[in-house]
Amino acid sequence: MVVQVETSIKPEPIGVRIYPESDGQPMADNTKQFRWIVLIKENLEILFAENADVFVAGDLLWYPVEGMGRCQAPDVMVVFGRPKGDRGSYKQWEENGIPPLVVFEIISPSNTVAEMSKKMLFYQEYGVEEYYIYDPEKGELVGSVSRGDRLAEIEPVNGWVSPRLGVRFELGENGLVIYHPDGERFLSPVELARRREQAEGRVKILEAKLRELGIDPEVI
């Protein structure tokens, strides 16, 4: 006997395009690449924490045109004029047509020249204004900025200050160091946690000294 089982899965209507939220590729190929992605993404989140209309994302698929399957997943991207919040992908037509204006890619051993050239053409075509490629193995940074309808290489890139982000790039013997607009270098999550612990420790010492003097720090 054949039993027909109903299913809640309905076929996709003809003409409706599905936009996957993953390209099936890992976020990073190694720990060094991953560390750099996290460093840049988290520090940019901190930089724009008080600006509700700057969206920062890492490894998020960006679809620039509705009805087309073309997409890229920048290691880090920054969108100005769009609210913060979780997204499964960045569908530009649902974001007032606003593209990411700053993009970072961290080179891994698996990246090919053809792949990176394809990314460059994609970002150039769809409105990226600043594009930075960093190779942590070689300590090399290549930056490009929008000049008319193309992305032109920044020369020299050492000491360059991003027009959009206000951050400064410095290359030295140990590779790339990025500085916030206030001159503070980008810190790793571990360094940020240690700094917070040190600050909290100093506060506790100060509170203890005030109590020794008969002063309640809670009422100051």
From TrEMBL:
One of its GO terms (molecular function) is endonuclease activity. Gene3D superfamilies: tt1808, chain A. PANTHER family: SLL0995 PROTEIN, SLR1095 PROTEIN. InterPro entries: Nuclease_put_TT1808, Restrct_endonuc-II-like, Uma2. This is Uma2 family endonuclease. It comes from the Bacteria. CDD domains: DUF820-like. Residues 51-143 form the Putative restriction endonuclease domain. Pfam families: Uma2. Coiled coil: none annotated. It comes from Planktothricoides sp. SpSt-374. Keywords: Endonuclease, Hydrolase, Nuclease. Signal peptide: none annotated. The lineage of its organism: Bacteria, Bacillati, Cyanobacteriota, Cyanophyceae, Oscillatoriophycideae. The keyword Nuclease applies.
